Amino acid sequence: MTNIKKPLLMLSATVVGLLMLPSTASAFTLSHLTSDSGYADSKTDNKYSADEKFNAIFGDDAFVAEGRIGGKTTYELDIHTVNTDGSFNVPQSREFTWGNGVAQAFSLIYDKISKKVTYNVGKQTITYTASNPFTDLFIRTAAVVANSSTKVDNLKLNNVAIAGSSFAQKTANATENAYDYLRIRGVSDSFTLTGFSTFVWTGTAPTQSRLAYQIKAVTTTDSTSVPEPSATLGLTLGAIALALKTKRQKQTV
Q1: CATH number of the domain to which 37 belongs
Q2: Where are the bilayer-spanning segments (predicted)?
Q3: How many folded domains does the chain comprise?
Q4: Predicted TM-score of the model (pTM)
């Protein structure tokens, strides 16, 4: 009996330790994809725009939640997917009125079991059922009008503050459009992302996505899957149980 007590104590300690591990949704890392200076000549000087850097590692998309400056005949909010030819499939969209310099709250909720996506901005809600898995979230901001900017900040993932934001600003004399990507790496489970988006412009409000942000749930070619705590727990307990069984069998021989 004494010979079994010690392994059982070790087993109990292992179970407690594994149950205390953070979920995969909180075990994320942050990084940025930004445009290199002079990226307009990227074909000759090996400098790339943020979009080029993203496209280089893009695998497939599950969904993209977007907020943009639209226009009188187009929408401002949508959830879309990207077709193989680069065109958009937009199953859900809504109209929305943005305020110049006004921080607008949003939330994006994904349920892994039902695969339901819920995107809320103001009093507008868009839902979508995703079909593809994903490994990363990319928050892309774009500003393509002089004296304008797009910012997404005050982010929280599963109510945990994210020490990062995405900000794209095109100054008065800039010749290149501004793009920025905040990468939240290691998100593949259910999640709730909240934050604020702010569009700033001078003069007449721009149209047709000249100020925009997207939250892209995608798989990338440089991602590696992280085992979920439940899977790690099962594998570890199985290994310990097998070791105990083997030890008892040796003792009875």
Answers
A1: 2.60.120
A2: none
A3: 1
A4: 0.78
